[in-house]
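agent> Task received from the user: take the single chain below, predict its 3D structure, and emit structure tokens. No templates, no multimer pairing.
agent> Plan: (1) validate residues, (2) run structure prediction, (3) serialize to tokens, (4) report one or two observations.
agent> Step 1 OK, no nonstandard residues flagged.
tool_call: predict_structure(input=
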Amino acid sequence: MKIGEIVETLISVKKDYPFGDYRKEAVEEACNLLDRLPRMAEADSSELLEVLERYER
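)
tool_result: status=success, residues=57
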């Protein structure tokens, strides 16, 4: 299952909770975290490449 599919599922679950419910807020936070994961992974890999380049010199 891809991250986008997981987020879509969480969004559909989020609709079941009323406004102000702590579970709705938790699902929103989980969606935000999942949305940032690909960018975080790209940043980590670019940082790793920089370190490797410095090591090779």
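agent> Step 4: summary for the user.
The chain has one domain: 3-56.
agent> Done.
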